[in-house]
Amino acid sequence: MSITPSFQPVVPKLKRYTMETLLSRGVRLDGRKLDEVRSIEIVPGYIERAEGSALVKLGQTVVLAGIKTDIVAPFPDTPNEGVLVVHAEFVPLASPTFEPGPPDENAIELARVIDRSLREIKAVALDKLVLEPGKHVWRVFVDIYVLNHDGNLFDASMLAAMAALLSARLPTAVKTENGYQVDRSKYTMILPVNHRVVTVTIAKVAGKLIVDPTYEEEQVADTRMVVAVSEDGRIAGIQKTGMGDLDYREVLTAVSIALNKASVYHRVLEDIVLPYRAKLEEEMKAETPGEEQQPPPPPPKEHEEPVEATEVVDEAVQEADESGNE
Q1: 41: which strand partners?
Q2: What is the pTM of this model?
Q3: E strand or H helix at 84, and its extent?
Q4: CATH for 13-287, among 3.30.365.10, 2.30.110.10, 3.40.50.740, 3.30.230.70?
Q5: pLDDT by residue (tens digit) across 119-145?
Q6: Region Disordered: what ranges (predicted)?
């Protein structure tokens, strides 16, 4: 049963007026520019007993993600693929508006946005997680816990999920008479990942589009749009939240901003998480000399010729201008 928080803080009119006045001058309440992202910290491997984990701090927003695996039967329509499950939980201590109990619709929305962003672009190589086609495959749980809410849970949670997946290892699958058992005393391979994906959240406040909104900015925002972008510049998903609207030009502008600012998040993953993943691979090779890990999977065929999204946006803006002139 869903529980919708009934208490929402009220932003004083004076603060709202100050915020909107500063935005009209291109400045935000915390001193950032409209398209500036807050400081980012990532700690991969934060939970020792998890298959993979990461703690992410985006400004004052803190999110923890963990990876757990087991062996199950595949879905009937995908007998040659592993299973990916994303779950998000808003811990009550993270915000006065979070209530104890089952995940509410906001937590469900967060999990679904991250799930779709990972699934549609085949970020995790599920075809490499098959033990016996149609019978036994690995199931990968991505558990996301919001520990402190100061705005922009989508970007912080996506970063945490991606960092946890990149730092995850698969334990040993032991064949038995009844199927397989998981031996967590020994890891056999790094979780295969095809693509890295991040999300960029853009809020509309007083007619201005701002990146990485804080909690206060989200309270006065008309609407938000979340754009998932892969490391090679492809759009992996788009989600609009809130009751307000965005016109066609604002959507194109928001997408263009997201494609540009996604590099900030990807750079942090490259600088902090990829070296950690490489270190794990070296440690596993040292522990299992003579055993070769599975090679990285090739990229999906349907994405062999990626479309330059920035060019698509520019063309769409040009078409909008032409139609407006008519």
Answers
A1: 57
A2: 0.84
A3: strand 83-90
A4: 3.30.230.70
A5: 989 999 999 999 999 999 999 999 999
A6: 283-326
